[in-house]
Amino acid sequence: MPMIVDRIVDRIGQLCVMPAHEGKPQRGEYLGDLGLIQNAAVAMLHGRIVAVGEREAVLAAYSPNAITDAEGRLVTPGLVDPHTHMVWAGDRAAELEQRINGATYMEINAAGGGINRTVRETRAATLESLINQTAPRLLRALQHGTTTLECKTGYGLNTATEITLLNAIALLDMEQRIDLVPTFMGAHDIPPEFAEDSDGYVDLIVNEMIPKVAVWKAELYPGILYCDVFCEQGAFSVAQTERIFEMARMAGMTPRLHADEFAALGGVPLAVAAGARSVDHLLVTPVDQVRLLAASETIATLLPATPFGLGITNTAPARALIEAGAVVALGTDCNPGTAWCENMQFVLALAARNLGMTPAQSLAAATINAAFAVDRGDQVGSIEVGKKADLVLWDAEDYRFLAYRFGGNLAHTVIKDGEIAYQS
């Protein structure tokens, strides 16, 4: 007698399973393993996947309470965005004009714009206002196929506002369908009150912020909490980053790092030595450090929407990283200054055109590898038995369309935890 399940997605034309490789991310020659099944079905029970395979076999073994007819569409795992700065107040639209007129990112920052402008507006915002401004961004991400999303603090740059941002992330995670993965990033920039004393600000992060964030984690958040640092000229040095990481690890946080966006200071070797989960941006990473990453478990997260937003050439060494055997993931870097982009589909299109990644490699980097970049590879990122039932039905018959087409939304139906969360 067939087992009763909550839902079956039936008549899938092309199913991209995106399997983990021996329980780990896809890398090297395995990057882009679609695990393709034609004429497929997926059965779900209590928000989990219980069967994946050819439709005749699934329908013979399971009887659903509800059927979602894919009508021959492409189905993939829900996309995973492993790098965002999603919670902020205000906007920085004027900076686009400044960049068009020749101002650089660092020049805008030094003149009081950039991150510190958002810091001023975010500090002035209430918790309720931050939630209300962020919720529509998360909804747009979900509607474009993202079902799990990393979310950083970093627009407070003082203890009280950083904790407020963590509270906003926790509340949004409870209120929204999309799953949020929090990251503490008090080390996003040097705030204006410490403009002449960056070491003094690092003292504040190490001696006050991290201990209070550790208390917040112990009381309110049982999962993995990351600590990210912007290791860059004009932000934090390698020595300062190392000091922050040391305290973060003592407080039970996992390091991750922004590095090599504008200058190669040595962030990649530091990230690898610190066991960072990921090192992100990598626009100016030297060849020898590509090999260092490839020999490690630290994930290289590339953010092609950021150089697009800045109007600069994307020089992240994606092909070299892949050929060397590094683990590569993709993210939006959604933020108010350089990449206000909630759409991972656009990231797939940019990765194919500007990074030279194949559509299959890009899809793997935005699903199973991105899931490992937020320590959720055992839960999401692929359509495998036991994992969360997070799927996207696309208005396309072939996975290549996700990188081929751009500028619109190909997501037809987004299923989150076995339930329809969005339908076009």
List the helices and strands and how they pair.
Elements: E1 3-15, E2 37-45, E3 48-54, H1 55-61, E4 62-69, E5 74-77, E6 79-81, H2 94-100, H3 105-110, H4 115-124, H5 127-143, E7 146-152, H6 159-175, E8 179-187, H7 198-220, E9 226-231, H8 238-250, E10 254-259, H9 267-273, E11 278-281, H10 287-294, E12 299-302, H11 305-310, H12 318-324, E13 328-330, H13 344-354, H14 359-365, H15 368-373, E14 391-394, H16 401-404, E15 411-416, E16 419-423
Parallel strand pairs: 1-4, 1-5, 6-7, 7-8, 8-9, 9-10, 10-11, 11-12, 12-13
Antiparallel strand pairs: 1-2, 2-3, 5-14, 14-15, 15-16
Helix pairs in contact: 5-6, 6-7, 7-8, 10-12
Q: Helical proportion?
A: 25-40%
Show unreliable segments: none
Give the overall pLDDT as a whole number: 97
The oligomerization state is single chain
Shape, please? globular
How large a portion of the residues is in β-strands, by DSSP E?
Answer: 15-25%
Strands, total number: 16
Which structural category do the helix and sheet elements fall into?
alpha/beta
- Count of DSSP helices? 16
Largest sheet: 8 strands, mixed
Based on CA atoms alone, the radius of gyration comes out at 21 Å
Distance N to C terminus: 35 Å
